[in-house]
Amino acid sequence: MTEEYTKTAQNTGAEAEAAQDKDRLSVCLLNDSFPPIVDGVSNAVVNYATHITEKGSKAIVITPEQPEADDSGFPFHVYRYPGIDLRDSVGYMAGYPFSPATAKRIKDADIDILHTHCPIASTIFARSMKGIIDRPLILTYHTKFDIDIAKAVKNKVLQDSAIAALVNNISACDEVWAVSNGAGKNLQSLGYEGDYIVMPNGVDIPRQRLPEEETMELTKELSAPEGVPVYLFVGRLMWYKGIRIILDALAALKSQNIDFRMVFIGGGLDEEEIKAYSEELKLGDKVSFLGPIYDRKTLSAWYCRADLFLFPSNFDTNGLVVREAAACSLASVLITGSCAAEGVTDGRNGYLIDENPASLAVMLATKGRDRAQMRKTGELAADELYLSWSQAVDMAMDRYRVVAENYQAGLYPKKNTPLDGYLQFQGTLMDLLSDSWLAHVVKGPGANITDGIKNFIDTYL
Questions:
Q1: CA atoms of 160 and 8, how far apart (whole Å)
Q2: Are 432 and 307 in the same domain?
Q3: I need a surface site. Which of 26, 100, 125, 127 has the fewest CB within 10 A?
């Protein structure tokens, strides 16, 4: 829930123009992932920046350097700072949050709000910048980081240290948003003791079903006999997304001579293992792996082609793909009590199962072949679950204005976490270097520090 922000604007002439100028915001969005890396959070940042710009305000994005990145097509500025290539181990570039040149750009942009979407390097950079420009800092908590940390870091002591550092970073922000109630509860389970506001993400797929002829043309690579249900999964191919539940349930259907077609769209670190397991279960041509699909119309066509969207994930905090499916009147099958299932009523606007293959298999064998009922459930999902990015950003911008006013009024308590002194010093140093010839010589030491950090990560994580 967000607080309402009401305007008393019945002004005309110069007063109206002044009120309009006051309504415009300059927002700095920071995240560790950004295209060409495509995931839910990078997609969120792109849509935040795009819709902020479309609504007449200003957005800039701060993110680590990426090989082959091309930011020329965005309608907003993207500034990149040095990164460490960890794509082979965790699938991302990690930011090295020290860049005097980027600090100068943020300082010159006359920022109203700092909004970070990752509680690691991006928030460290944002905290340093807060010491320079004295603006409120908001963090959105998108992902269950304890699961990602446990996957990337095998040592329990290092896991606990990483989570403690993450919570410290989050606690230093002036306001914390969570993309769902479940995401907020996960954050509290890590040791966060502050308040949070639920601020849901939207989707960038229009609410519509494509014409049947266009749908079939865009999905013609799938061969499915008339009347055979088509099931769909879209997302990163990682075991923790519930993919083993899907494959085991499909194997159970096959053993009962129940026909189906299953389509997986996406890629990920577990992709080869997942494909090998599908072959081990002898699912054959009943299962197709199409890789990532970036064209939104083609992706919409797959949502329209499918009869059910299978997403038995307890990992995802918001499940944007569930709302993407709803945009195309496609109902989802979800785990009871999961974050992705928030707002879903079993049999009304979606289907809920227990977190095991047998529960999914029973559901598909009974309800998953009634195409007329599945279509009615999908239509209610469109009515009750769909949220566009334009609507989501409207909510966020209303809250931005409240945060800016609260900060100016001194309503946020001063935070004194262990890193504050160091980060304020780092911010001051970046500020000094940004206007100095010394900014030209930090590339050498920066490269050495980056190599040292990467060697540590490769050795211990």
A1: 49
A2: no
A3: 26
Tokens of 398: 């209303």
CATH number at residue 182: 3.40.50.2000
Separation between Cα atoms, residue 433 and residue 100, nearest integer Å: 6
Half-sphere exposure of 444 (CA within 13 A, CB side): 3
- 4 located within any domain: no
Q: Say whether pTM exceeds 0.90.
A: no
Shared domain check, 284 and 146: no
Cα gap 265→270, rounded to integer Å: 13
C-alpha to C-alpha distance for 303 and 329, rounded to whole angstroms: 8
Cα→Cα distances 96→61, 63, 65, 89, 389, Å: 16, 10, 10, 17, 30
In this structure, the chain runs to a length of 461
Is the same domain home to 234 and 141?
A: no
Q: What's the average pLDDT block by block, 10 residues per block, for the chain (461 residues)?
A: 37 49 86 85 94 97 89 95 69 67 84 94 88 93 73 67 83 95 92 95 94 97 92 94 98 97 94 98 96 94 98 88 96 96 96 98 93 95 96 97 96 69 51 47 42 46 44
Q: Tokens at residue 324, please?
A: 């993407």
Backbone angles phi, psi at 351, to 5 degrees: -130, 135
Quick one: residue 282, left, alpha or beta (phi over 0 = left, psi -120 to 50 = alpha)? Answer: left
Query: Do the domain assignments include residue 177?
Result: yes
Task: Tell the residue number behind the tokens 């329209």, with chain if given.
Answer: 304
pLDDT computed for residue 432 by the predictor: 54
Expressed as residue numbers, the domain containing 182 is: 20-202+391-460
Short-list 284, 353, 346, 269, CA closest to 313: 353
